[in-house]
Write a structure and sequence with these properties.
Layout (H helix, E strand, L loop, with lengths): L2 H23 L3 H32 L3 H5 L13 H7 L4 H29 L8 H10 L7 H10 L17 H14 L2 H9 L4 H12 L1 H17 L2 H6 L9 H21 L7 H8 L1 H33 L5
Helix pairs in contact: 2-15, 5-8, 5-11, 5-13, 11-15, 13-14, 13-15
Amino acid sequence: MSISETARMEAKAEREYEKKHKSQMRLKPSDIVFNIINYTVFAAFTIVCIFPFYYLFINTISDNELVRKGLINFVPRGIHFENYIRLLQVNDLFGSFGITFARTVLGTLLMVLASAFVGYLVTQQDMWGRSFWYRFLVITMYFNAGIIPWYLNMAMLGLTNTFWAYIIPGIVAPYNIILVKTYIESAIPGELQESASLDGASHLKIFWTIILPLSKPILATIAIFGAVGHWNSFQDSLILMQSAPKLYTLQHRLYIYLNTTSNLSALMSAGSTSGISKSVLDSALNGKVIKYTIAMVTIIPILLVYPFMQRYFEKGIMIGAVKG
């Protein structure tokens, strides 16, 4: 048999195989119905998740009077961006944004590094008192002294009215350490560490060259937790920064603005509006719009972070939650 005939027979056999494979892969009517229902349900679920953000946004850019009357539901009307412009004029808003951004970046970075390193250490059998220290960390998750002892402790440590009050208390996060520990034990082969140790690598070198690069999924997961927590943090600024207005977080600054407009609204209801400018009165009349605008300003930045971490998030949280 010649080479050309052999090639033709192989091509024919391949076509027959592909034809048979396609016939086997042909969807049955029940499969088609299932796919339609499946896609419909997930599309509806996606709309339900997205609509609240869409609703907030269209109400912030629509005519304020229509928003106050509750007439904006699906389509924006009387589009304008005055609400955002007014919000940008809040006293020291950009300074508060800088404080929040700095604490989110620095606090998240230190928390991730500390969680990764401590999580790695408690997986090492030769660590002195490994079981004791791990249990000590876990116990702290179940006890909370309360706000007053917490404030007294922060005051005695000299952390009130300082930027480090935002960073230091959140560096050690027991829950995140547990996630990292579980991930390392279940997803990173111990043989890698053993081989590196036999080659003379120290624990620190093993951590930087092996553990960190292979732990991206779980580190991205706890980074999202940490970033959201720092960005939305409000109580520490309210309690600890009473004498340092320049260190107010964005959430605290917007809270003050919202309270101010609410008080003006109460004054207007009582008829005491003398000496108050028209623009301020207009803002007070539209308290609902102010709340919507503040919500959008605080939500959008942290939402922009999630897409970059999404590919790691699901894998990290699933593997890190298998066992404790």
